[in-house]
Amino acid sequence: MDTKALFELIAKRRSIFPKQYNGKPIPTNVIMDVLTQANWAPTHRLTEPWRFRIIRGAALSRLGDLSEKLYQDNTPEEKFSAEKMTKKGLKPRQSACVIAICMQRDPNLSVPEWEEIAAVACAVQNMWLACTALKIGSYWSSPGTINSKQFKEFLSLKEGESCLGLFYMGYYDHAPQEGKRTPIASKVEWMNS
Length: 193
What we know:
The chain is α+β, with helices and mostly antiparallel strands. It has a domain at 15-53 and 97-172: NADH Oxidase. The chain contains 6 helices and 4 strands, in the order ααβααβαβαβ. The protein has helices spanning 3-12, 28-38, 58-74, 82-94, 113-133, 149-155, and strands at residues 50-55, 97-104, 136-141, 161-171. Strands 1-2-4-3 form a 4-stranded antiparallel β-sheet, with helices on both faces. Helix 2 packs across helix 5 (113-133) and helix 3 runs antiparallel to helix 4. It is globular and about 55 Å long. The protein starts with a helix and ends in a 22-residue tail after the last strand.
């Protein structure tokens, strides 16, 4: 394994937003390749809590309509922005696909919920790295209305299932900006004795 290439891939992972996507469709087999990488995330007691709903085609417009409606219905008048509402509806329509990131809680409650959430987040990181390797832009968003009754109905969530966010995907033409991080040494404490 080329360790240097792996480390470079991790460092190149970026949020690339729907307004940067070029409209080129992502083939089904490529989406499944990305999700196959998600399936290899760490999972305590092998609960494999990640679940996905792939939203494409006309369903993207339906998601856009729902996003606008939920924003309008749940935003106080003094905070309402027609521009923001339009942007919320536009994001799905600018994407080649949107993947609803869902979590199926282990019915036996064999692990704490936070571990299940962490496992799903690891699955999303695998998806993000796969997208980076495939030169597909991606972005994880967690709108405040994600657990509304209307959104749950849109996704047809099952008993014990919740949605943790939306993963927008699309091909892009321009290279993303370089990332910025503060040095890791400022975030580490060594305990040797």
